[in-house]
């Protein structure tokens, strides 16, 4: 799925809130390190992890699912294996979240079809949000 740098820049610059599906409470995990980086850059992080719901990660309340989040989500950043993306896409289309972003190495055509059928076209797959931020925003 090809995306222009301009589109990625607009996603990153126009967003304030990032829900992180699969955010780990373990500081050595990639999901935790990348989320901490994005939080340090000024984004509000919303952890989504059913096993840790009700706890806090990076100082933020953990929710079991996207549907439980009481505020507007700009980007849903996903750290789950590719086979989980269709179910995540089904939940995503029931929210007001704007951008569906699957991390590096994560992609699924069935999820894309679900999103497109729901007329949700802001889809990023197989891209690391931190790498794209450093490449497109920090060098700005």
Residue runs with pLDDT of under 50 for 5 or more positions: none
Biggest sheet architecture? 5 strands, parallel
Strands, total number: 7
Number of helices: 5
State the distance separating the first and last CA atoms: 24 Å
Average pLDDT score: 96
Give the helices and strands as they follow along the chain.
Answer: HEHEEEEHEHEH
- The share of residues in extended strands comes to 15-25%
- Gyration radius (Cα, Å) is 14 Å
Instruction: Classify the secondary structure makeup into a structural class.
Output: alpha/beta
Q: Could you estimate the helical fraction of the residues in percent?
A: 25-40%
Query: Multimeric state of these chains?
Result: single chain
Shape: globular
What would your notes on this structure say?
Helix 3 runs parallel beside helix 4. The chain is about 30% helix and about 15% strand. The mean pLDDT is about 95. The strands form two sheets. It has a five-stranded parallel sheet, sandwiched between helices. The protein is of the alpha/beta class. The protein has helices at about 5-15, 30-40, 85-90, 110-115, 130-135; strands at about 15-20, 45-50, 55, 60, 75-80, 100, 125. It is globular, with a radius of gyration of 14 Å.
Write the layout of secondary structure elements.
Layout: H1 5-13, E1 17-21, H2 30-40, E2 44-48, E3 56-57, E4 60-61, E5 75-78, H3 85-92, E6 99-102, H4 109-117, E7 123-124, H5 129-136
Parallel strand pairs: 1-2, 1-5, 5-6, 6-7
Antiparallel strand pairs: 3-4
């Amino acid at each position: 799925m090809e995306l222009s740098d301009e589109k990625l820049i607009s996603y990153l610059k126009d967003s304030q809130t990032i829900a992180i599906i699969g955010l780990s409470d373990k500081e050595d995990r990639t999901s935790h390190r990348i989320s901490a980086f994005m939080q340090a850059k000024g984004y509000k992080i919303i952890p989504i992890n059913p096993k840790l719901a009700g706890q806090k990660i990076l100082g933020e309340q953990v929710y079991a699912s996207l549907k439980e989040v009481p505020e507007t989500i700009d980007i849903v950043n996903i750290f789950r294996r590719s086979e989980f993306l269709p179910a995540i896409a089904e939940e995503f289309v029931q929210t007001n979240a704007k951008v569906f972003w699957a991390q590096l190495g994560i992609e699924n055509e069935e999820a894309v079809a679900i999103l497109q059928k729901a007329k949700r076209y802001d889809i990023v797959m197989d891209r690391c949000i931190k790498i794209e931020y450093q490449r497109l925003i920090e060098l700005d």
